[in-house]
Design a protein that fits this description.
single chain, 402 residues, alpha+beta, Beta-lactamase, three-stranded mixed beta sheet, 13 helices, 29% helix, Diverse_Enzym_Activities, CubicO group peptidase (Beta-lactamase class C family), Beta-lactam-related, Beta-lactam/transpept-like
Length: 402
């Protein structure tokens, strides 16, 4: 554990509670290993790791371990989009069809089975802002809660498109499927950010991996972050919790060792603790770090406010989905969940705190009030297996005792 002199707001004794709590996750075989870093006012306040990155190989978690960050890719794609926004290469009210013509004639599901759905024309064009806020009407096949999810699975798209389908083809396939609702009328977690990645490609003239590398990753010195593991020897094993059993999930996890056909702006990146901490710190500092500026502070403030209509929270405006983090008191910005009312969330956090997590239980958040970033890395699917994210917030904020 490391406690910096500038991090005097943190109690060393209370930070030690985090060690004890998370070590029990490893001791009880709930997690193979983990790494947590807290950065306060730009300096490391806490940096601890424990357990194995690969149980079967008896390989311990190391500071340079690589992790599949899955949906923590979404904020990176959202930043890429807003960089193009700042260049006037796109506008938030632009229809998606301006960049992907297949999105011109969208239809909305109204009834019937997945094999023969009844649909009607959408009343509103899908716009760039709808993709950023997950109010597009698109969904994920893995939700298993609605007919539109089943339609995705019928097209062999549960956690991603079938083998051989690239990003452009995947977007065209999604455009041909019925939306769950008219764009802008509800919130639902889905492939919106993957479509956004294709918009980035068309608006910039670069492939998504090249745009990330040229304009975000290299400028921020994020040398470990890419659409495949930069060093497979450092890649953590992926584990799956099913019922009472946790087992290695190579059938899913091995994809990270290979160059993908489908560049997923919604969930495709592999990263390290140091790299993602730099990304989170760039956001906390208003779009700049170490003299490299990706966004203006005005843009980052705009991204990290609630953009749901009427300042609604996810509990009232969103589709009910099981999650181990609260929807009550939490809004959604341009790529991030945003805390509106800490009392309603049941966690003693700050108004305006924002962040997101990944399928394998990774998580990050930024607290502008406390000048705080927190990044948690591990590799367990699904992220709802244990309440570790909400517990982390409780422990971290309780350690702010100075």
């Amino acid at each position: 554990m490391a406690v910096s002199s500038s991090a005097s707001r943190f109690s060393p004794d209370r930070l030690a509670r985090i060690d004890e709590h998370l070590q029990r996750y490893v001791d009880d075989d709930r997690l193979a290993g983990w790494h947590l870093r807290i950065t306060h006012r730009g300096e490391t306040a806490y940096d601890q790791l424990h357990g194995m990155r690969d149980r079967e190989a008896s390989a311990a978690v190391t500071p340079d371990t690589l992790y599949r960050i899955y949906s923590m890719t979404k904020p990176v794609t959202s930043v890429a989009t807003m960089m193009l926004y700042e260049q006037a290469a796109l506008a938030l009210n632009d229809p998606v069809s301006k960049y992907i013509p297949s999105f011109a004639d969208l239809r909305v599901y109204t009834g019937g089975p997945a094999a023969k759905p009844v649909t009607r024309p959408a009343t509103e064009p899908m716009r760039i802002k709808h993709l950023l806020t997950h109010t597009s009407g698109l969904t994920y096949g893995f939700h298993h809660v609605h007919v539109t999810d089943e339609i995705m699975r019928a097209h062999r798209q549960e956690f991603g498109p079938p083998t051989g389908m690239d990003l452009a083809a995947a977007c065209d396939s999604w455009a041909a499927m019925p939306l769950r609702f008219d764009p802008g009328t509800c919130w639902n977690y889905g492939v919106s950010t993957d479509v956004l990645g294709r918009v980035v490609e068309v608006a910039s003239g670069e492939s998504l991996d090249d745009f990330f590398a040229d304009h975000i990753l290299r400028p921020l010195d994020m040398t470990d972050t890419a659409f495949q593991a930069t060093d497979t020897d450092r890649l953590a094993a992926l584990y799956l919790r099913a019922g009472e059993t946790t087992s290695r999930f190579d059938a899913f996890g091995d994809a990270a060792a290979h160059t993908p056909e489908f560049l997923s702006g919604g969930g495709g990146l592999v990263s390290s603790m140091s790299d993602y901490t730099r990304f989170a710190e760039m956001l906390r500092r208003g779009g700049e770090i170490d003299g490299t500026r990706l966004l203006s502070d005005r843009t980052t403030q705009f991204m990290t406010r609630n953009h749901l209509p009427g300042d609604a929270d996810l509990a009232t405006f969103g589709i009910p989905l099981y999650a181990e983090t609260p929807f009550t008191g939490v809004g959604f910005g341009l790529g991030f969940a945003v805390t509106q009312d800490p009392a309603a969330t049941g966690v003693a956090s700050s108004v305006g705190e924002y962040g997101w997590g990944g399928l394998a239980s990774t998580y990050f958040w930024v607290d502008p009030v406390e000048d705080l970033t927190v990044v948690f890395m591990t590799q367990l699917m699904p992220s709802s297996a244990y309440p570790v994210r909400s517990e982390l917030k409780q422990l971290v904020y309780a350690a702010l005792a100075g």
